[in-house]
Design a protein that fits this description.
Strand content: 15-25%
InterPro entries: Gfo/Idh/MocA-like_OxRdtase_N, Gfo/Idh/MocA_oxidoreduct, GFO_IDH_MocA-like_dom, NAD(P)-bd_dom_sf
GO molecular function, one term: oxidoreductase activity
Number of strands: 16
Radius of gyration: 23 Å
Largest sheet: 9 strands, mixed
Number of helices: 9
Helix content: 25-40%
Distance between the termini: 45 Å
Organism: Dolosigranulum savutiense
Order of helices and strands: EHEHHEHEHEHEHEEEEEEEEEHHE
Strand order of the largest sheet: 15-12-11-10-6-9-8-7-16
Domain Gfo/Idh/MocA-like oxidoreductase N-terminal: 5-121
Protein name: Gfo/Idh/MocA family oxidoreductase
Length: 348
């Protein structure tokens, strides 16, 4: 094996193209080629001087290939992963890694037997907005966090074609839930207390076009929500602590923090007219009673996903995305489906 990892991308659609661009900029990899079942995609790759394999068998039987990156529809991840691992390839797999936790266990068993690295591309662990929330949690800028709301809102419906079909593992719980749940599970070290949820089928597809999950931890309640039918967005993050509140509006990282002033001299709020009555409880606090600012960000110095995979292969690092963590996330998704079907709260 050379110092660089020779990698082939299987599935050259949107995410396959994303990986292609990223890997071409990384000194640790040589993109040896691609494979896609669509002949039009194969021809386009060849026109752009990208080697296009004619079959998956050709990919896995090429002894010069070190790593296979899988960016195909969700239902095919398991079979391709196992075939590549059994041919002594390391594997990077797009999320959701499989459609069931049992399928993932089978892949992990094969990877362990073959002594090969298998890693899932849970890339949202690297999102800057998520790291701002981590900063709030660790610095206690707004005190002890006791409630988090994590949302992704859009109005374009379910994207693409196969993501609308249950057969291929479509739906927003698999598509975005696997990211947003993974973030919170990782942040709170998988210390779950209970969960419940609802799925949305507004668009009339076989799979959910949105969902709301109440995932509660030992000391923190959370709401995770995804919608593809929202023409007005709610903030990406809303975080409450014992000493303040923070909001992150979107991926552009615009944010604000409001904290109470710890002073006995502050003015009391004045009653305001609210509908057909008055309220002091819901009146805004007086200006001298709060301070306003932004989130104090911490640099967590995480190496990139691709660098981390490379260093894991060569025994120079530990995977940031561990398979046992991904397995727990998949099990939580299964619990959400169970909670929705049975209309119950699941306790851990």
């Amino acid at each position: 094996m050379s110092n660089k990892l020779n990698i082939v991308i299987v599935g050259f659609g949107g995410m396959g193209g994303f990986h292609f661009e990223k890997l071409n900029l990384n000194e640790h990899y040589h993109v040896q080629g691609i494979y896609d079942i669509d002949e039009a995609v194969q021809k386009k790759a060849e026109q752009e001087s990208i080697k296009s394999y004619t079959s998956l068998d050709e990919v896995v039987n090429d002894e010069t290939v070190d790593t296979v990156l899988i960016a195909t529809p969700n239902d095919s991840h398991k079979s391709i992963s196992i075939q590549a691992l059994q041919h002594n390839k390391h594997v990077i797999c797009e999320k959701p890694v499989t459609l069931t936790s049992e399928d993932l266990k089978e892949i992990i068993d094969v990877a362990d037997k073959q002594n090969k690295v298998f890693m899932v591309h849970q890339n949202r662990r690297w999102d800057d907005d998520f790291h701002l929330v981590k900063s709030l949690y660790q610095t206690k800028q707004i005190g002890e966090i006791f409630h988090i709301e994590s949302r992704v809102h859009g109005a374009n419906g379910i994207p693409g074609d196969w993501r609308k079909e249950e057969l291929y593992g479509g739906g927003m719980l698999y598509d975005w839930g696997v990211h947003l749940l993974d973030q919170l599970l990782w942040l709170f070290d998988y210390d779950m207390d209970n969960l419940s949820g609802e799925l949305s089928y507004i668009l009339g597809n076989d799979v959910d076009d949105g969902f709301t999950v109440h995932l509660n931890f030992k000391d923190v309640t959370t709401i995770v929500e995804v919608s593809t039918t929202s023409f007005i967005k709610l903030p990406r993050w809303y975080v409450k602590g014992t000493e303040g509140t923070a909001v992150i509006h979107d991926w552009d990282l615009q944010n604000e923090v409001v904290c109470p002033v710890k002073s006995k001299e502050q003015s009391h709020p004045k009653p305001i007219k609210a509908g057909a009555g008055l309220t002091k409880t819901m009146a805004p606090p007086s200006e001298d009673a709060v301070t306003k600012g932004s989130i104090n960000s911490i640099n967590f110095e995480m190496e990139s996903f691709y660098d981390n995979f490379y260093h894991t292969v060569y025994g120079k690092g530990e995977p940031i995305v561990k398979n046992e963590q991904v397995l727990k996330t998949m099990e939580i998704i299964e619990k959400v489906f169970e909670a929705v079907q049975d209309e119950k709260v699941i306790k851990f």
